[in-house]
Amino acid sequence: MARRDGHDGEKTPEGFLTAHRKSHVGSIIDDIEFSADYCLQKLGLHLLSMNGDSINLLNEAITKMIAQFKIYHRHHDISLPLLKEKTGLTVHCNEDDNDTAYKRLVTHCEKRKYTCKAESWVGCCFSPTKDKFRFASYHESKWSQSDEMERLVADLKPISSEHHIEDVRKLSFGEQPQIKRGKVGRNEPCLCGSGKKSKRCCAP
Questions:
Q1: Is the pLDDT of residue 176 over 70?
Q2: What is the C-alpha separation between 182 and 186, in angstroms, rounded?
Q3: Per-position DSSP letters for 55-118, written without gaps between them
Q4: Rounded distance between C-alpha atoms, residue 170 and residue 191, angstroms
Q5: C-beta of residue 107 within 8 angstroms of C-beta of residue 187
Q6: Angle, helix 52-72 to helix 24-32, in steps of 10 degrees
Q7: pTM (whole model) above 0.90
Q8: Residue 142: φ, ψ to 5°
Q9: Bridge pairing between strands 120-127 and 87-93
Q10: What is the tens place of the pLDDT at every residue in 113-159?
């Protein structure tokens, strides 16, 4: 209330938010704290619904994705589902232009939402070079079987139960491999799901 309505008092009370202030998740919270944007509010609520261990795991995962980006210069992502609540979160580390990065985030979130039979999903794009939150997406719709979605997710790597363990070294971050020559025509849609022709996207 103090934060939103300008009342006296600490704008961010001691507790969950301040405990993670000096972290990757903390920087995301800083960027969305005063925003009225619907997607950002949903991202904030989703982060608040996660326990401390999950937040620590997410911080470690983002640290690892940043390190991998600096080595391989490829985008990475991690998805954390909340199956009982029929929702989930995807953090996408990406340095593409905003339009391309947003399309990739949206596409990946829609795929994850479908495979988890979720009714909502939150996406977050994070800059691995600037160590900073870029933008968010929010997806909400009642789940239903779709032949088209079944085709789109056929090659999607499933989310493993390893995403819920403490050892971050065992996590899989959905790395986008380089496309081998001959696997897809250069004028055909790129397999990453961006909607662009292969020659203008991931093709070498």
A1: no
A2: 9
A3: HHHHHHHHHHHHHHHHHH---EEEEEEETTTTEEEEEEE--S-HHHHHHHHHHHHHHHHHHTT-
A4: 26
A5: no
A6: 100
A7: no
A8: -70, 135
A9: parallel
A10: 999 999 999 999 989 898 888 899 999 999 999 999 999 999 888 77
Q: How far separated are the first and last CA of the chain, in Å rounded?
A: 52
Dump pLDDT digits (tens) for 76-119: 888 888 877 888 889 999 899 999 999 999 999 999 999 999 99
Cα(200)–Cα(177) distance, rounded to whole angstroms? 16
* Rounded Cα gap, residues 196 and 192, in angstroms: 9
- 38: helix, strand or coil: helix
Q: What is the pLDDT of residues 21-35, one digit of tens each?
A: 677 877 777 777 777
